[in-house]
Amino acid sequence: MAMETTVSLSVNSDRLQSRLYKLAEMGALEGGGVSRLALTDSDKMGRDLVVSWMTELGLDIAIDRIGNVVGTLKGQTDQPAVMMGSHIDTVSTAGIFDGNLGVLAGLEVIETIVDAGITPVRPLSVAFFTNEEGSRFAPDMMGSAVFTESLALETALETIGIDGKSVADELARIGYLGEDTFPSVSDTVSAYIELHVEQGPVLDELALDIGVVEGVQGISWSEYTFHGTSNHAGTTPMSYRQDAGVVAAAVMSYVHQLAESMPNNQLATVGSIEFRPNLVNVIPNYSRITVDLRNSNESELKRAESELEAFIASLVKKHGVRVEKKVLARFEPVIFDSNMVGKIESLAKESGMSTKRMFSGAGHDAQMFAPHCPTAMIFVPSQDGISHNIHEHTTPRQVTNGANLLLQTILKLCM
Ligand code: GLV
Ligand code: MN
Ligand code: MN
C-alpha cells in the first residue's frame, strides 16, 4: 500500500486506554498505582496478559533466556525488524504509564497497521524487556543490556535481588526462562523506537505535546556498606564510637550538597538506607546506603563519583569504620540517532503537535540499543512531572498524540 494512504492512519485510542487500565489491574495498588517489581507474581500476571494480546494479534512470540519477550509481525521481507519496546516491570510505588505505555502503544501501532490491511516491508516487533527498573535486581535495563550484549547472560542470571532470590530462579518460577536466542542486534533490528512518559515537569509546565528525546543522561549507582561497632547509646562517649549510622547519614547529606554545588544538572539521591540493629539505644554497627548519581556530561559525572569517593575515604578514617563498595549500575550518557530525532520532530510538527528537544533524566531500554542501531524516543507529558509515584498521570489525549506519532514514525521506518 502506498505511503499516502498509510499516513492518514490513527491509533484506536479507546483500545489503548482500555489496555493500559487492564494491565494496571495486575499488581494494582490502593489509590490507583501499581507494584510489579521484576519477576514477582504480579510481573508474571502482567507478562501473561501482554503475551495474550500479542497472541490474539497473531504475532510470532519469542522469549529469550533473560525473559525478554518479543512479538513480531512478519514483513514482506525478512530484513532486520523495526522494533518498538519498553518494560512492564515497575517500581513498587508506580503509576500505570512508566514503561507500559511504550509496550502497549507499540502493540497498538501494530494492530492499527494490521487492521488497515497493511503488510510492512520490514518485520515489525514490539518487545518488553526484563527488569528495566532495577529496583529488585541491579543493574536496571538488565534485559535490554543482555539483549544488546553489553551484559553477560550468566552474570544477569546470577544476580541476587533485595530479597535474596536470584534472577534465574525467579525467571524459572514465573515461567519466563525462555529458550529463544537472537543473533546480534545489528543483524536483527534495523531501528529501535520507544514511546515513554517524560517523568519530569518540562513538557507539562510548558504545555507542550511532545518531547523529542536527543539522549539519556549517564547513571551511576553504588551501594556502600559501613561496618562499625555496636555499643550502648548512653554509656559510650562520642569519641569512643565507631558509628556506622552516622557515616551513612553524612554521605546522604554530602551527596545532596555536592549535587547542589555542581552546575549543569548534577543529580544525587540516596533512595535506600538500612541500619542494624536499628534500635533506639544501640549505636549501629552496620549501615547500608545506595547512591544514585546522574549527569548528562560524563566528565562531570566522573567528577561527582570521585569527590564522593574522597569524602567517604576521609569519613571512614575519621569514624574508624570499614567500608565495602558495590557498583550496582554504570551507564554513560547516550546520544540518539540525529536522523531519527529529526524525523520524529518533523512528523510531530506536520501533525500540528508542539515539540521540545530534550534529554531524558530517567534510564530507558532505548539507551542500550543506541550503540547498535538507529534509536530514538518520544516523550509525552507527565502531569506535574510526577513519576515513580501512584499519582503519575498522562491524559488520554496526550497518550494518543504520542501513539500516533509513534505510528507515523514506524510507517516511515518499516515501509
Ligand atoms: C530507571 O528507570 C531509572 O531511571 O531509574
Ligand atoms: Mn520506564
Ligand atoms: Mn521507571
SSE inventory with pairings:
Blueprint: H1 3-6, H2 13-23, H3 41-56, E1 60-63, E2 69-73, E3 81-86, H4 100-115, E4 124-128, H5 142-147, H6 153-158, H7 167-173, H8 185-188, E5 189-197, H9 202-206, E6 210-216, E7 218-227, H10 244-261, E8 267-269, E9 273-276, E10 286-295, H11 298-319, E11 322-331, E12 334-335, H12 338-350, E13 355-360, H13 366-369, E14 375-380, H14 396-414
Parallel strand pairs: 3-4, 3-5, 5-14, 6-13
Antiparallel strand pairs: 1-2, 2-4, 6-12, 6-14, 7-10, 7-11, 8-10, 9-10
What features would you describe in this structure?
This protein has 415 residues and is of the alpha/beta class. It folds into 2 domains: 3-217 and 333-414, Zn peptidases (Aminopeptidase), CATH 3.40.630; 218-331, Alpha-Beta Plaits, CATH 3.30.70. It contains 14 helices and 14 strands. β1 (60-63) and β2 form a beta hairpin. α2 packs antiparallel against α4 (100-115), α4 crosses α14 and α12 crosses α14. It is globular and about 80 Å long. The protein binds glyoxylic acid (GLV) and manganese (II) ion (MN) (2 copies). The site of one manganese (II) ion has 7 residues, from loops.
